[in-house]
Design brief:
By secondary structure, the protein is α+β, with helices and mostly antiparallel strands. It folds into two domains: 175 residues, FAD/NAD(P)-binding domain (3-Layer(bba) Sandwich), CATH 3.50.50.60; 89 residues, Alpha-Beta Plaits. It is 36% helix and 23% strand. The protein has eleven helices and 15 strands. It has an eight-stranded mixed β-sheet with strand order 2-4-3-11-12-13-10-14, with helices on both faces. A three-stranded antiparallel β-sheet has the order 6-7-8, with no helix packed on it. It has a two-stranded parallel ribbon with strand order 1-5. Helix 1 runs parallel beside helix 8 and helix 6 packs across helix 7.
Length: 340
């Protein structure tokens, strides 16, 4: 959008090759509509269809239809498509360049010692902070864990076209199938649960699988797959302020609990809003304040749902209610979407 608006955007990408970020890979119906407007249709994306939400606690389960069809898509494929689309639109890409610091005067300092003087910085580093523009530390210390489950017919048949949410004390886990038939299993766990497991991530995952039989069945498909982790995720944080020329995007703008499945939606919505603000001559602060207001309801709603989900009593009640009134799932799913 910046390139189409007459800018000459330079994308600095630290990875030499596009990897698979620690992300659930859920692309909602609303995000699909946004991508269509940007020129990327469903046929271009090629994800796994997702039409249902399946909710689990240790003793209960319930299934409800999603408001509209969504897809499961690996970040490797999604990011590859987005980068190619940006370059086709006129952006420039430099790979293998790591931004180390956003300096007080707005310059960008890279790992090779270069210092770039730029008019505007669009900060899109996800959950990783950059010196000089770090988000405040959160009191809610949360650990993000991810297991990629190898594609197997039995696992595909078990999960199918559903996005699964497994609720347990102190966290939750999302499971879905991506375009390659792989299972993407992502967890958000309070650090206290890891401490109780002796600081051993493997022991924690085993313990969670024993507590929740359905989750344990999914974990069993992992075999010896490595566990990827990211710590101190500041869920619920929203950037209210910024400094001149610094536009915060995605998780650098608002960190929604991943059980909402709206992380990719917030990334796109913030990028679109920032590009429009730049094109209209509005300041970074004006953009940030407006986006913070738009993100408040979905992020706050997702935080309340997370708090319910990590307590056995309220998680059980929510699962029972969804079983009795399936449409309630669509109602809350709508409350956690963000307008682009």
């Amino acid at each position: 959008m910046l390139a189409r608006g007459g800018a000459k955007p330079l994308i600095l990408e630290r990875n030499l090759e596009t990897g698979d970020a620690i992300c659930g890979g859920f692309i909602s119906w609303q995000t699909l509509a946004t991508l269509e407007q940007l020129g990327l249709g469903l046929d271009d994306l090629g994800g796994n269809p997702v039409t249902r939400l399946r909710l689990f606690t240790a003793k209960r389960s319930a299934t409800a239809p999603l408001p509209k069809p969504a897809i499961g898509l690996s970040r490797r494929r999604f990011d590859t498509l987005l980068l190619a689309h940006a370059l086709k639109s006129g952006a420039t890409l430099e790979r293998g360049v790591t931004v180390r610091e956003i300096c007080a005067d707005g310059d960008v300092r890279t790992s090779d010692g270069a210092r770039l003087s730029v008019a505007n910085v669009f900060l899109a580093t996800g959950k990783h902070d950059v010196r000089g523009a770090a988000r405040p530390r959160s009191d809610n210390i949360t650990l993000g864990l991810r297991l990629m489950l190898p594609a197997r017919p039995a696992m595909t048949a078990l999960i199918g076209d559903a996005i699964e949410l497994h609720l347990f004390e102190g966290g939750y886990c999302g499971v879905m199938i991506n375009e390659n038939g792989e299972g993407n299993l992502c967890m958000a766990v309070r650090k206290s649960r890891l401490s109780a497991a002796g600081g051993d991530v493997g022991a924690l995952i085993t313990q969670l699988g024993q507590e929740s039989p359905a989750l344990g069945e999914r974990i069993s498909f992992a075999g010896g797959a490595p566990v990827e982790a990211i710590s101190a995720v500041p869920y619920g944080w929203i950037a209210q302020n910024t400094r001149p020329g610094l536009f915060r995007l995605g998780d650098q703008a608002a960190v929604i609990p991943s059980l909402a499945g709206e992380g990719n939606g917030i990334a796109l919505a913030s990028g679109i809003a920032a590009a429009k603000a730049w094109a209209e001559g509005r300041s970074a602060q004006a953009y940030q304040a407006r986006f913070a207001k738009a993100a408040a309801k979905p992020v706050t709603t997702a935080m309340r749902l997370w708090e319910m989900g990590e307590r056995p009593l309220t998680a059980g009640l929510a699962t029972r209610l969804m079983g009795l009134f399936p449409k309630i799932a669509g109602h809350f799913a709508g409350l956690t979407r963000i307008d682009s």
